[in-house]
Fold:
Amino acid sequence: MPETARTGPSTTPTETRLTQTTPAQTGSSTTGPATTGSTPGPGGTIPDLPGSTPTGAGRPASGSHSVYRSLRRLYPYLRPAMPYLIGSAAVAAVATLCGLAFPLVLRKIIDGPIAERNTNGLWLPALLLVLLGIGEAVLFNVRRLLAGRPIVRVEQAMRDALYSRLQALPVAFHDRWPAGQLISRAASDLGIIRRFMAFGAVFLVVNIGTFMVGVVILMSLSLPLGLIVAALAVPLVALSWFYESRYQTLARRSQDQGGDLTTTVEESVLGIRIIKAFGRSAHLGRRFLDQARALRGTELSKAKVISMLWAVIILLPEVSLGLALIFGVRQVANGEMTAGELVAFFGVAMGLRWPIDSIGWLLALANDTAAATDRFFEVMDSEITIASPGRPVSPGGRAGRLRFSDVSYRFPDAFADSRPLLSGLNLDVAAGETVAVVGSTGSGKTTLTALVERLYDVCGGSITLDGVDLRDYDLADLRERVAIGFEEPTLFSASVRENVLLGKPEGTDDEVREALRIAQAGFVDELPWGLDTRIGEQGMSLSGGQRQRLALARAVVGRPSVLVLDDPLSALDIHTEAQVESALRSVLGSTTALLIAHRASTVMLADRVALLADGRIAAIGSHSELMATVPEYRYLLSSDETADSMLKDLAARGMSR
Structure:
């Protein structure tokens, strides 16, 4: 693979990552990921909105955004539903024409049977009116049936595509984006798009067409009066353009503030134990209220803009109808127009009130949908920087030799003047060997483990597994060969079996129980339904040690070629830790392992120990060798080793009693 294709997520030297700023901290309205600096969006940035902290990302000037251009991007998803939408619009148009035909039938009745005092002549027009009414009702019902189900399928396809994209996007993307912003895009934004496409878009087209047809009918009844009504179009277009530019900004700000509010609620729910333990409910409540008030203010501003537009839209037809009535009565009095024609004229004119009155609401809905569409495509346009190559390589054997060659890494959103987190790192882990990595807090140990599974990509150098660069593997193949156990165990709201089998979906119950045995997770048998017990969101119904043991079982169940464990025993008591270590030795004997260790007891599992300092491997050897020759290593582990010895002595005495 050419070296240009090896470029990692960033080329800016850095060590320290930028911190995220929430609206509660800045007092501003955010527009997506609350990150200082460049944030994701179309072309890699999210446009700033008034009230947000500028990012310098080069957003277009306010009002330059095209609603049509945004909505046009929905066409690939709408294509399967287009025949139904066109049919729905056609049916709605025919139904509307049935309504416009009512006054024309009344004209025939007034100028015919009523003027001639012929009551027998009323039956046929009356029957026609009944048929028109039934036809209009049936056709509007058919319109709903035509558009409803296909549009729901479009929404489902868009939601599936968004979810798939979120799963494919790299971890670095999720590091920058608050979860609430992503949740609001998958839920409320797609709901807005569905409502507009099923109803708003159809009637925006139908109502404009109805107005044009209605004006033609009015002119055929009376040209002067028809021109008075047709003159409405000029101020309506001007007003719509003027208010649209103001509403666009408010619509986008409202949806972004809704995402921020969702993030706050999500964090408050997930962190409820911390909030209650520290008595910070009032603090989080004030933050929530501040964001809710900001959202309410934006919604009120939207309502103000719409109310002003709607007031003018309602006023103009009233004025034009008043003028038409004055001139129409004069025409009837002068014999230039019959009474039936005047009634028909005003009947058609009143039939145009809904198409005219709805313009403001439909334009507002179109702007809301355009903003929702932009937010949807901000995620869909984000670049997938970590993906399988076009021609993946898959070595036949699974020896598990892991080699880091001159590896460097820096976070994409790090300060430009800081050093790389990892630089010139070299490490060779032989097949079947266990290497423990020790380093101070913030030295890059966890990042090093994430590079092995390509959760992040190296910015320089290479990592090879069995002689093949990790970037040349198919991602699914690589992640089948390499399993990782994180320091913070993440469990899902599913059964114990389902959580463990995330490491090997086709695994059997026997394999699950063997993995649980290695992880010393015998407590599962004491749960109400054993392997079928659902453990709740984040596994919070379990203790920290129990969650960590289930996460360890998930890592070992697939018997991977390479096992990466990030301080896997940190939440265990000394007895359980010793039991897990003993069981792990049977796994580590045949598996290449990379252990992140903070405790001397964990280091003892390793064949060799590597000291990570200043972004590179500063020393490597056995535990006793490093303790004797490397002061920094001795400083990191000497106190812990003493504490471990004391605890083991106390445990031994307690057991002997």
